[in-house]
Amino acid sequence: MSQEFTRGATLKDVAEKAAVSISTASRLLDDRHASKTTETARRVREAAALLGYRRDYAASSLRRTGTSTIGVLVPRLSDAVMGIFYEEIARECERRDLSALVATTGDDPHRLRLAAQSLLSRKVDGLVLTTARTDDDFIAELRSAGVPHVLALRTDGISPSATTDDELGGYLAIRHLADLGHRRVGIVAGPTYASSATMRLAGARRGMLESGLDIDEELFAGNGFSVEAGEEAAGRLLGLPRPPTALFAFTDHSAIGAMTAAARRGLNTPGDVSIVGYNDIPLARHLPTSLSSVRVSLDLIAQGAVRLLLDAEEGSRVFPPTMIPRQSSARIRPV
Amino acid sequence: MSQEFTRGATLKDVAEKAAVSISTASRLLDDRHASKTTETARRVREAAALLGYRRDYAASSLRRTGTSTIGVLVPRLSDAVMGIFYEEIARECERRDLSALVATTGDDPHRLRLAAQSLLSRKVDGLVLTTARTDDDFIAELRSAGVPHVLALRTDGISPSATTDDELGGYLAIRHLADLGHRRVGIVAGPTYASSATMRLAGARRGMLESGLDIDEELFAGNGFSVEAGEEAAGRLLGLPRPPTALFAFTDHSAIGAMTAAARRGLNTPGDVSIVGYNDIPLARHLPTSLSSVRVSLDLIAQGAVRLLLDAEEGSRVFPPTMIPRQSSARIRPV
DNA sequence: CTGTTAGCGCATTCAA
DNA sequence: TTGAATGCGCTAACAG
């Protein structure tokens, strides 16, 4: 046991034990080619197993083209969506016998560059980033530098990406509220630099138009994904002279903030104001007033992203979201 | 710009530019020794900066003893506590010009071993783990194998660790509720394999004893950290013939589950039942009914852990928690 | 299919 | 203090 962790056997040891040359051992142990079934191959694998041989990635990557490692950039890991997303990426990597490195950027362009540099200096084979900002040209820089990358959750419309259909998601949320009889729906929007937010907004507008809802510009507020941002924006909306009877928030966290803002004003959810969130994080269904939300398949998006990055697939993947109604949205109260 | 990401300059390039040998450049750029102030040193650093030289960690670690990388093992990243903890670890590593690798284990002993192997095979200099289980001897194996490691948030009582004083935290939570006049407090406990949970329990018991609260064994329920676990356990407690007037949950998530269980039974928080959580995640203060919670300094714990691991400090660090009262806990209603 | 040779980028001998 | 030489563990190019 005490040997189990100590710097393991090297290729040389394996080669000796199997009575072959080092390069033969190397070749026979290379998982990239179809694993051979010859007697020698069996012997080498047996020797490797016996000695507990594990390839030294550092040394290996020195000669190989790639490192079998991908880099993942997210705004923050304290956000459940990003945490789950990264876990799914890591899971997919594990399946493919790769590893993943994460770095957080705080959604700050400067920190993004630093973090990407740091990842790249570790020679990752490619980057998955959920940090695309329409007001920053970092993604364009990656493209022109020829760095393999794929966007996830957010897109810049050019680089390959794996996203949910945010326009549809926004549309579904509004349709759901309209179906419940709401005519005046407030939008707790997200940052304009994120495509996810602008697409949700576009979908919401389409839904409002189609369903003949009020489209006052004063019904649109907010520019963040956080609980605080949601609370602040919802507070303003609910303080309007003609307040909305329902709110659509662009994340579950900002929806929780919206619930809080409502509660602070003595309004019940859904009695006085219906609320719909986005992402359907696990917490949503377990809240005291369970949260209606637009579900996004983070696992599919993560798998799609890895596939786009490594399997040289073209274009982008867009996965459809689903509206999950729960307690927080209800039929409008007859006045 | 398009060169910025391409495989950067090597030591050889720097050496040429500075008109010195490769080995001189290597030595002068070695951050482990006091940075020299000679003219040559300046020239080498300037050349390095000009070329955007970044040490190749893979190659470097082939010769150096260490890799300047530490491995972090957490149960899951979708949990806000772990997400924040890892971010703090990563921040501290950045300060020290190290990097960190994370892996999740799902709190499963088998996956823990696999993940640790995977990290170790990447030759990390040491391990930070928040996954200690009293019913598993993996930590003991690490010790006997001589793998540098430090425990965080949970401890096994032997290996060096950075934790909060969970016993005190449990005590403070109960004292807080007792001070509000509650005599019958239900405990939404955590898994018995986690020292954090057993210590909180011990502290809670001490508080109950000291404050003369009811100590029925039926007031203790639950064995998980999740929202679901909290909801389930709180549901049982609140269904008791003589239900508690307050609940102390061992995590904020299980406290939210407890709030949900209360709501499902038509009970108001804090009107009918007061609730206190643990960890004070950012969400706690922003809930519709803001959650009273025991605050833990994840940043200090993270820094302490890295310090213990790398600065060869001895023993363990225990940081004191703080009780943060909010809306979810209130004076008991006069009957 | 096999073994020999060369070298990835770097840090460390050692001799100057 | 410097530079030449050596090799970390591994893979790729080559010849057998």
Describe the model.
2 copies of one chain form a homodimer. By secondary structure, chain A is an alpha/beta fold. Among the domains of chain A are: 53 residues, 434 Repressor (Amino-terminal Domain); 131 residues, Rossmann fold. In chain A, 42% of the residues lie in helices and 15% in strands. Chain A contains 12 helices and 12 strands. In chain A, the strands form 2 sheets. In chain A, strands 2-1-3-4-5-11 form a 6-stranded parallel sheet, sandwiched between helices. In chain A, helix 1 packs across helix 3 and helix 10 packs across helix 11. The radius of gyration of chain A is 25 Å and the shape is elongated. The model of chain A has no long low-confidence stretch (mean pLDDT 93). Chains A and B meet through helix 4, helix 5, strand 2, helix 6 and helix 7 of A and helix 4, helix 5, strand 2, helix 6 and helix 7 of B. The structure holds a DNA duplex (16 and 16 nucleotides).
